[in-house]
Specification:
The structure is a single chain. The chain is built from ten helices and ten strands. It has 286 residues and is of the alpha/beta class. The strands form four sheets. Strands 1-2-3-8 form a four-stranded parallel beta sheet, with helices on both faces. Helix 5 links the parallel strand 2 and strand 3. Helix 1 packs across helix 7 and helix 2 runs parallel beside helix 4. The N and C termini lie far apart (41 Å). Bound molecules: NADP nicotinamide-adenine-dinucleotide phosphate. The site of NADP nicotinamide-adenine-dinucleotide phosphate (NAP) has 28 residues, from helix 1, helix 4 and strand 2.
């Protein structure tokens, strides 16, 4: 697995108990170097190569297009080529940001790509080239990832909330938050099912970032007021899709079902507290 030191990678390592897993970070193999990738894959010749490595700083990608395209596109193709050459299956992680966000109902796996950001374009190019050179590959699109042990939206809100009476959060982008531990379980099940082609894997249900933030402070029993704002008032370098809910049909076809994001969030708040005892305790219910 490439990207083992990332948010999703850590969750995959923690969840993948039934099989032997070799997890690599960028210090073990820089996926931009085809020789390092080939050596790593040849060394273990795994049944599956999972590529969760990426340059995920969406705003950073706007000013660093060369790096974004190198890591998220060309290097992802290196990984796909090596997996194919050494007889492994490939599962590549992609994103809801390959869509333009103009839809009003959930995106299907075969809907046309129309990315609006450098990050989205880098991933869309990778998807296209990987599908061409390795049609049997499984491309798993996910969205709004959060998890223990890394920077993510709930962590930011929970760090800010205790010292802020109010936080403004955009209320005009809608998507599905996805808990890394749930996604890890889905990815493992997809590998065991021999999945191929594009699959959408997110927690079920959808919300805006404002609604997500409100639920985060509620779950942690905090009193901070979350106020809705707009993308126009909160301008960022990369344009985000206004609507990027992904249909779960492609995942459900494999009889894999993911929990609702609110249940996932509750699990996250408890797991974060256990991993970081100083963190905000979850709210007592019942
Ligand atoms: N985060 C989200 O909200 C989100 C949403 C949709 C899709 N995704 C996709 O889901 C996947 C996992 O995301 P994540 O949030 O877990 O990522 P992350 O926490 O940012 O971790 C990125 C991983 O990529 C590795 N990496 C970066 N550049 C590399 C290079 N040149 N060579 C080898 N490894 C390299 C990093 O290794 P080191 O740490 O060792 O440098 C790290 O393990 C990515 O494909 C991402 O595009 C994420």
């Amino acid at each position: 697995m490439f990207g083992a030191t990332g948010l999703l990678g850590k969750a995959l390592i923690a969840a993948w108990k039934a099989d032997a897993v070799a997890g690599l970070g960028s210090k073990d193999a820089d996926i931009r170097d085809i020789e390092q990738v080939r050596a790593a894959v040849e060394h273990t010749r795994p049944e599956w190569v999972v590529n969760a490595a990426a340059y995920t700083d969406v705003d950073g990608c706007e000013s660093n297009q060369a790096l974004a395209f190198d890591v998220n596109w060309h290097a992802a193709v290196n990984v796909a080529q090596a997996a194919k050459d050494f007889g492994s299956r490939l599962l590549f992680l992609s994103t809801d940001y390959v869509f333009d966000g103009l839809a009003t109902s959930p995106y299907q796996a075969n809907d046309p790509r129309a990315p609006r950001s450098v990050y989205g374009r880098s991933k869309a190019h990778a998807e296209e080239e990987i599908s061409r050179i390795f049609p049997d590959a499984c491309i798993v699109r996910t969205s709004w990832l959060f998890g223990v042990g890394g920077k993510c939206f709930p962590d930011t809100i929970l760090r800010l909330a205790p010292s802020r009476p109010e936080i403004d959060v955009v209320n005009d982008q809608r998507g599905s938050p996805t808990y890394a531990a749930d996604l890890a379980r889905a990815i493992i099940a997809l590998c065991h099912a021999g999945a191929s082609r594009i699959v959408h894997a997110t927690n079920t249900g959808d919300c805006t970032w404002f609604e997500f933030a409100r639920e985060i402070v509620r779950s942690a029993g905090l009193n901070t007021t979350i106020r809705p704002t707009t993308s126009e008032r909160f301008v960022r370098p990369a344009e985000r899709p206004k609507y990027s809910v992904l249909s779960s049909e492609s995942l459900n076809r494999y009889k894999i079902f993911m929990p609702h994001w609110k249940d996932a969030l509750r699990e996250y708040v408890v797991a974060r507290q256990a991993a970081e005892p100083g963190a905000n305790p979850p709210r007592k219910t019942g």
